[in-house]
Amino acid sequence: GRVPERAAAPVAAPAGLAVRSEPPAKKRGRFKFGPFAGYFQPQDDWFKRIYGEGDVIYGGRLGFRIWSGLHLWLSLSRFQSIAGTTFTADRTVLTLLPASAFLRYNIGSGFFSPYAGVGYTLTSVSEDSEAVGNFKSSGGNVAAEAGLELRLNRHLYIDLGARFAQIKIQPEAIPAEVDIGGLQAGISLLICL
């Protein structure tokens, strides 16, 4: 006669060996923040004639991941230059405070992650001069950026980038507009949470 089919018994794992499940995917950090230091190079001839070809700029940056590679970046920086007036050599101190908001898109999420962005920079300017007194103003314009993020580990990044903007104001003592924008390039050490 016909031998009845027997149901296959489940195979038990050998004693002492646990069945391993796949580890959960690591969540990507939503926030990045850290200090920035770099070099600011003005474009305006009047600016360069009085305050030189450029100097150190520093500040802080804060980024929020919106979706995939798209981020919102906020930053505040400070640039200061001390010079003398052209004829009398009176001491003059120029301070620029650029505040920026950028939409940035990162390509990839590996060790190297190049990016490009567009945003708006509002710069507050003050000039303290022994000869002509104090001057304060502000101006803003659309700005562009590009750079490269290097991932050191899950929570630490290095950002190498450059930004450019043309920001014109009208000083009281000069008949023409002055461009207080320019090129800033530097490095940020970012903590990712």
Distance between the termini: 71 Å
**Overall SS class:** mainly beta
Shape: elongated
Order of strands, widest sheet: 1-2-3-4-5-6-7-10
Provide mean pLDDT, rounded: 85
Using only CA atoms, what is the Rg?
Answer: 27 Å
**Major beta sheet summary:** 8 strands, antiparallel, barrel
| Proportion in helices | under 10%
Q: Give me the count of strands.
A: 10
**Which consecutive residue ranges, at least 5 long each, have pLDDT under 50?**
none
Overall description:
With 193 residues, this protein is mainly beta. It has one helix at 45-51, and strands spanning 31-42, 55-67, 70-84, 91-106, 112-129, 133-153, 156-165, 168-169, 178-179, 182-192. The strands form two sheets. Strands 1-2-3-4-5-6-7-10 form an eight-stranded antiparallel beta barrel. The relative contact order is 0.20.
List keywords for this structure.
193 residues, elongated, 62% strand, mainly beta, 8-stranded antiparallel β-barrel, 4% helix, two-stranded antiparallel sheet
Question: What's the topology here?
Answer:
Elements: E1 31-42, H1 45-51, E2 55-67, E3 70-84, E4 91-106, E5 112-129, E6 133-153, E7 156-165, E8 168-169, E9 178-179, E10 182-192
